[in-house]
Amino acid sequence: MGATLRALRALVLLLGFYLLSLGLLAALIGLDVLVFTWGHGPLTVKVGFITVLLAIPVVRGMLMLRTPKGDDGAGIQVTEADEPRLWALVRELAAEAGTRAPDRILLTGDVNAAVSEDPRLLGLLPGRRRLFLGVPLLTGLTEAQLRSVLAHEYGHFTGGDTRLSALVVRGRVQIGRVIGQFHAAADDKVAADRARQERASAKRIAKGKKAKQIDTTGVGATYRTMARIYTAYGKLYLRASLSTARGQEYAADLTAARIAGRDATASALREIPVLSASHDFYIDSYATLGLQARMLPPRGEFFGGFGRLLSAREAELVKLRSGLPEEPAGPYDSHPPIAERVRRIEALPADGRTDEAKDSALSLLTDPARTLAALEDAVLVDELLSYPRAADWQELLDASMAAGLSATQTPLHRALAGYTGQPATLPALLDVIDEGRLWRLAEQLPLSEEAAAAKGRAFREFVRPGLHRSLRTMVLAEFSSRSLLHWEFSWTRPATVRLPGWGSETEDDGPEAALEAAVDAALADHPDTTALRALLPPAVQNA
Amino acid sequence: MTVLLWILAVLAVPTLLIVLWLAKVFLKEFFSPSPDDGTLAAETAQKLGLLPAERQNTDLAAPLPADWSAAVAAARAGDWEPAAELLAAIGRDWDRRSAVAYLLAESAAEEDAWLLAWEAARPGDPDAAVVRARSTVILAWELRGGKGAQYTTREQFDGFHRTLASARDEIARAAELNPDDPTPYIAEIWVALGLGYPNAEMDKLWSEITTRAPHHYEAHFSALQYWCAKWRGSERLAFEFAERAAADAPLGSLLTAMPLIAHFEHDESEDAAADNTPEMLARVEAALADVAAADPSHPRLPELRHLLAFYLHLQDRNEAALEQFKLVDGHVNALPWRYRGDVAGYYCQVRNTVAHAVAGTD
Domain of life of the organism in this record (chain B) (predicted)? Predict the structure, then answer.
């Protein structure tokens, strides 16, 4: 389908929205005319009132002519003087793709690259173009892969996709807004009705009558029906524009392969879902590690650590790259499944451009370290920025684990507090064990149906794993509160705990194994806390 | 008007009579119902001196010898010495040793204070060690519960696997302390079932057992379970194992039960046709000869009698079936009844049908 035809269809679909709204208004007016002609008294007033209420969202939806200006999002704007090499690359690719270079470049904190244009006159005149470039994306891609990603984005402009998409987007946004207004109105109505019923119900109780069940089903149904009409049209609209959108993606991929090379394009397509998943993991497990201790990584490391993670886990990433998502991200996602896109690119004849620009795209920046630091200021919220900085990742880990352990309340803490009526402490627990009441205490733990029904040895076997975990945590918390615990930071593995006295022993005979054995002994059928007490700091031993 | 009333009154009399008669029949049936077939069969069985369902013992397949039950009762009460004496007296009678070790282990799987006392008093006692190993295996199966995998929780499976794994050390220790005893290896078969030993591992384990006791009943019973389709084998493997065991065993070893059990475990037919094939007729015949030649005090003899009674009935040899029922009545924890929810009820239903059929042909 040519650009003109696509434009025509987008226009028709958008006009359909206005047509639908006008039709609904006409129906409402027709109803009024009927009622005013033949009806009389309060009915006339009521119907008139309702039709006006329903007409308001329809009219408002039609009058919202401006597509809402998207928020630029947080990022740092870089000028040509700041980043001459990046700008040169961006311009060069735009020229090769045969389109205009962006007017601005914004570096952002996510795994994303996008070019946006604010079209004027419904997209008939070109507008200001901005390039959004995620720094984590630069961290994970090679220069060649970045070229492919940028060429793909320019491909959309060359195909005229973006200008026309203004029409498509306008239609989508407007329908969505009208639906939203109807739902909001219905919700208000339900809330108001509930309040009214609750007042009435309170009065009935005051008069000694049984309160009526509050029921708001059916209230706001008129609004919801209107919303449903628009939803149905919205679905039609999306379905009509979807195949076009996917076709445009394939076309942009071809442009990318032509400009940046087949292999770089295929590998970039493989790389992006992997980077996206890795970055989520990195943010959860590393960058925000110190939040519960109210601490941030060293300056520049919040985004900078991602690169270290990627190089440390290279072997893992190789595996991830081989498995690609076969399904589109959602039923209305405009992108075809990555696996299909990669297949199409890899089916192209080889172009011999395998070994181009293997350096990390981050090295295109003049001073990556400075950018990484500046990005934190631009992206992170002020509250986070006010947190103190750890000296290194190790300190961040230690602080975070210490904060976590001191706040932890295991099921055993709760059972012990419930059983003794005293605050749950490790010395109190050891005393209960020594008095032979561990299994009485265990009955206060949250139990599964099977564990609750079991008796004797079977009961003890059921509760022992949970007891072991809880007791181990309590012991670690005790060490931690005396700053005797050390955690080993790693970019490749989860953090491992190091107890006092840890040296170069193997896993089997170090203090860790001694702790496991001591915890086991304390939770044996005939518990013995001697070994555990011997391991603990003196203050606890004799408590 | 009066005439009309008279007509009504005349009509009312027969109606009233019918109602009264119905009421009488109803009340009579209500207070002393006429016996149906099931009740009649039950009465027949009772006349033969057979016990009703509520008086059947569902824990055992036969009454225990007096010293056995005394030892178990003493252990439950916390005294381990009679148990130790019993196992010492049994010595190298492996069939009996395995059976007693199992009974004691069942009790130790519930509470093991008495066993701990025994272990403390006689460290390194092979008899205590074998009871310990068996009790841990039983405990593991108790944690798992008797339900199908989809009704068994993650927690149950975790406990099952963890406890089975810990039993392996205890089994090895028991085997080391009494190198001639096959019992620890028999316990390990149930670890093999639970942890899913590969067939090659099972073959190795099996040769450990057969070099020590070539015709051990419980060993064969346990291994047959392993080779069944529902565990780690198949119907073909189970029959192959069972037929070979029966063929190689001397008369009186009771291993002729194995082909019957293999058939029972894999038979899903609704009628008795599969139980009347020439092979099945021959298997029952062989089992009858085996039973006749066996030591009357063999601890496993009643189990085979239960199975025989069932198949004799299915083969319409009710008199022979009744003979077996009379010999085992009172204890019903045996195949084929054991797999049903209402063990005693199922047993009594089949037994009563047999008794009724025999009485009818007299």
Answer: Bacteria
